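Subject line: Sequence and fold of a protein, written as structure tokens
Enclosed: The protein record, placed directly beneath this head.
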Amino acid sequence: MSGNRISFCLLLALLPGLLLATPPVANSAPAAVAADQSASDAQVQQSSTPTADDDASDYRYQGLSRRDPFVPLLTVKVPIAPRDDRPLEPLEHYELTQLRLVAVLLGFDKPHAMIKAPDGKAYIVTVGNRLGKNRGVITAITKKAVVLKETYYDYTGNIKSSEKQLKLTKREGA
């Protein structure tokens, strides 16, 4: 019984290969019909060849004023390269979404804020410090947020700047 099953499975496995390997059946059309078809094919080929007065042969694509269709519309913001050779501050190694504003201190001559990084360390920052991978500079510290300005290149290559905020998180357990 298992021998029959094996031979049946083998036959099913080889059947598609045998069907594809068979030569095609020769065309049984009369020679006169074949000659008519070849004459009509020649006429179609002659009529489909472009002529010198065809408008399509003179067409040239003028894409100087158009954007390149192969450049993606949405790209990652590319920060402007630093002009100075200063080392990066610790909070410049993280994206803004990874940083968390923990506290704001307003009683001093300059306001300070405490920002917690993903590595668990807390950093005290003030106006002028840099945050994030897009070279954000802190412009203001308010009661509820740290405001910073990021400068980057957009998808067209123009320099853009945007204002971002790190908002104070609610106290846990309160």
In short: DSSP finds two helices and eight strands in the chain.
